[in-house]
Amino acid sequence: MKITVETTVKAPIAEVWRAYTTPDDIKQWNTASDDWHTVDSTVDLRVGGAFTSRMEAKDGSLGFDFAGTYTRVVPDELIEYSFGDRTGVVEFVHEADSVTVRVTFDAEYENPVEEQREGWQAILDNFARYVEARQ
Questions:
Q1: How does pLDDT run across 24-46, given as a tens digit for each residue?
Q2: What is the per-residue burial (b if ≥16 Cβ within 10 Å, else e) of 66-95?
Q3: Residue 133 half-sphere exposure, CB side, CA atoms within 13 Å?
Q4: Confidence band, pLDDT 50/70/90 cuts, at residue 108
Q5: Can you tell me the distance from the alpha carbon of 127 to that of 68, in angstroms, rounded to the nearest whole number?
Q6: Cα distance between the two ends of the chain
Q7: Which of 31, 99, 110, 117 is the most buried (most CB within 10 A)?
Q8: How buried is 19 (Cβ within 10 angstroms: 0-12 exposed, 13-18 middle, 19+ buried)?
Q9: Is 90 exceeded by the pLDDT of residue 135?
Q10: 6 neighbors 32 (Cβ within 8 angstroms)
Q11: Got the DSSP string for 57-99?
């Protein structure tokens, strides 16, 4: 099953793309709630390149790595990747004064679909707030 989440960011595509693909920026926005944070991020943005993000609870009780491999990269337009046996696609749709960022990914089977949708949407909403605050 595929899940899609999206947000609209009122910023130029160059800023949106940079914030989505730069490790220092990713560490600032990549969280679903205030009690979590991303402590490390790497990006090798090319086909066959790897990415990782280490997310941890701020109280140190839990943590996990989100990692995968880029399978297609079209600058300012599209990122496709695999993570484990799942895939994801990030589309950047340019508007006159904004960019719609749409993420579609394969659901996993350990957590309810709605919980996954809510978590990924929260991260994307944080991304939009982060980018817009820098304008």
A1: 999 999 998 999 999 999 999 99
A2: eebebeebeeeeebbbeeeeeebbbbbeee
A3: 10
A4: very high
A5: 20
A6: 36
A7: 99
A8: buried
A9: no
A10: no
A11: ETTSS-EEEEEEEEEEEETTTEEEEEETTEEEEEEEEE-SS-E
Q: 53 forms bridges with which residues in the sheet?
A: 41, 66
Q: What integer pLDDT is reported at residue 34 of this predicted model?
A: 92
Task: Show the tokens assigned to 27.
Answer: 């560490």
* Tokens found for residue 120: 């990924």
Give the torsion through C-alpha atoms of 132, 133, 134, 135, to 10 deg: 60
Selection from 39, 33, 36, 37 nearest residue 52 by Cα: 39
> Going from the N-terminus, what domains does the chain have, and what CATH number goes with each?
2-133 (3.30.530.20)
